[in-house]
């Protein structure tokens, strides 16, 4: 994914979050509710993946979550599936595309794999949960005089895992790639 695509995804995430009236830490369940979507939690036997998104009817969607996932992981998973919903299924942004998506399992987008769509959904999730301007501000607040950042505090501020906060910092250019 090039920098231009990343910028478009970040702007889309910001626009959607703001249009839903959500602030940090983003309540992803409230986002789904405001979009008239549904979240259903399923057991391990029913869900091979942590999360999936489905077109449930002409105007609706459902995110299935596997039970037993940590809260921060669940939050990122929901945001990731919202990324698929907007970017790859067209919900609310491209009704022509949305109308080509079949109802049910044929519209499933999953978390796993190293496809361009997965990278894009991850970028959306990071931007949706950790807006760039706020991330940079919080990052600076938790960086000491020796330029050591307390990534745990950054992650806690946004309600995400430390790896997610670290990855966002790398993509924003404030943390080095190891």
At a glance:
With 178 residues, the protein is α+β, with helices and mostly antiparallel strands.
Shape: globular
For the record, the CATH class is: Mainly Alpha
The share of residues in extended strands comes to: 5-15%
Q: What structural category do the secondary elements indicate?
A: alpha+beta
Radius of gyration, taken over Cα atoms and rounded to an integer in Å: 16 Å
CATH fold-level topology: Arc Repressor Mutant, subunit A
Distance between the termini: 20 Å
Give a short account of the largest sheet. 4 strands, mixed
Properties at a glance:
51% helix; alpha+beta; single chain; four-stranded mixed sheet; 8 helices; Arc Repressor Mutant, subunit A; 178 residues
Structure commentary:
The chain is 51% helix and 15% strand. With 178 residues, it is of the alpha+beta class. Helix 7 packs across helix 8 (162-171). The chain starts with a helix and ends in a 7-residue tail after the last helix.
Secondary structure elements and pairings:
Elements: H1 3-19, H2 28-34, E1 38-42, E2 51-57, E3 60-66, H3 71-88, H4 95-100, E4 104-110, H5 116-129, H6 132-141, H7 151-158, H8 162-171
Parallel strand pairs: 1-3
Antiparallel strand pairs: 2-3, 2-4
Helix pairs in contact: 1-5, 3-5, 7-8
